[in-house]
Amino acid sequence: MIQRIIIPILAVLGLIFALYTVALGERPTPVAPPASLPALAPFRQTIAGAGIVESASQNIAIGTPISGLVASVSVVQNQSVKAGDVLFQLDQREFAAEARVRRASLDASRSTLARLEALPRAEDLPPLKARMDSAEAWWKDAQAQLTRAQAIEDRRAISAEELSRRAASERAAHAALAEVRSEFDKLSAGAWAPDLAVAEAEVSRTEALVAQIETQLERLIVRAPIDGVVLQVNVRPGEFAQSGVLRDPLILFGSLARMHVRVDIDESEAWRLRVGAPASATVRGNRDLNTALEFVRVDPFVVPKRSLTGDTSERVDTRVLQVIYAFDPSALPVYVGQQMDVFIDASPAGEGTK
Fold first, then answer.
1. In this structure, are residues 265 and 320 in contact, taking their beta carbons and an 8 Å threshold?
2. What sign has the CA pseudo-torsion 123, 125, 126, 131?
3. Where are the beta strands (DSSP E) in 259-329?
4. How far is CA 136 from CA 129, 131, 165, 177, in A?
5. Which terminus of the chain faces fewer neighbouring Cβ atoms within 10 Å, N or C?
């Protein structure tokens, strides 16, 4: 009973299932809709390229001229700053201490110069004048005594030794008067010109040292070079900031008053480019977000391609000509570093768009 009825039925059911499975497998697989529609070129003949959005000032990698410990960071991402505003500051304690030492040296050298320029002191002249008057009186007295002795006609009334002594006293008094007068004239004349020159040179030297350390202190404060927006902040208080060119800049900065698109054009199509040709950019992922571009310039040096889009037909060894276009940032919701599809009109002049 089982062999004659059930087994044939199972065989027929298996055949039907096999036929259904084969028929189902032969149906065409429906094509999945794309995640986003591809951008459309608005020109009859087009040069297509991948564009990277950058600031109008180009992206400025802010660094520090001196390596040191970061004391404070004054900005955050997406903050608008003016030229000269503080971005971050390094530890100033070592240079501040050296500045105090140099300013003290400058004060001392200025005081020395002022003392020399103030000579003679008013209180120094009266004592010296009194000494000069006393020396003059002594000399006149010695001169009078010598004159009286020389006027005696009878040489027996005065000895030759006494006459010689009076003459020596007169010469000594005259020499003492000349010495005091010389000191008085020297003091009255003020400081010696070479001494003043040395003091002035010392003031200039210490002023230069102070200016040098103040420049060093100012270099520890990193300021915004232009009006712009902080794009990235890769430094924190307490970290050690290394000077020089870094892979990741301490702060990435740029002006966003206008946006630029740096377009890579394959070198094999560079000959088709017309300088100043109109262009259009489309946001990747939404072809409805597009805007016309304004030509800025062509970088006249073909470089190896750096921005890879992931296209399977893209070659790593490709060299590209870079063309820069500009657009109003309010026209598209894009950010610096974002990729865009750019189409440049390669039609002969005058043919226009489609």
1. yes
2. positive
3. 259-266, 279-283, 290-304, 319-327
4. 10, 9, 19, 6
5. N
Per DSSP, what are the bridge partners of residue 328? none
Cα–Cα separations (whole angstroms), residue 58 to 249, 279, 323? 14, 20, 13
Query: What's the burial of 10, exposed, middle or buried (CB within 10 Å: 0-12/13-18/19+)?
Result: exposed
Residue 279 identity (one-letter amino acid): A
Say how far residue 235 (Cα) sits from the centre of its chain.
16
Q: Which residues contact 80 (CB under 8 A, 6 or more apart)?
A: 227, 228, 229
In the block, tokens 């002049």 appear at 349
- What is the pLDDT at residue 352? 57
Contacts of 2 (CB under 8 A, 6+ apart): none
pLDDT digits (tens, 9 = 90+) for 62-94: 999 999 999 999 999 999 999 999 999 999 999
User: Helix, strand, or coil here: 338?
Assistant: coil
- The answer to whether the CB of 208 falls within 8 A of the CB of 43 is no
321 backbone dihedrals φ, ψ, rounded to 5°: -100, 130
- What is the distance, to the nearest Å, from the Cα of residue 194 to the centroid of all Cα atoms in its chain? 42
- Copy the structure tokens of residue 226: 């232009």
Residue appearing with tokens 């017309």? 274
Read off the tokens for 340. 């865009």
Three-state DSSP class for residue 231: strand
| Predicted TM-score (pTM) of this structure | 0.68
CA-based radius of gyration for the chain:
48
Q: Which residues in the chain show pLDDT less than 70?
A: 1-4, 24-27, 29-32, 34-36, 154-157, 307-317, 349-354
Q: In this structure, what DSSP letter does residue 118 have?
A: T
Beta-bridge partners for 343: 48, 280
Output DSSP code: residue 43. B
Whose CA is closest to 335, among 231, 237, 245?
A: 231
Beta bridge partners of 53: 261
Which tokens go with 147?
A: 């004159």
Instruction: Provide CB contacts within 8 A for 329, sequence distance 6+.
Output: 256, 257, 258, 259
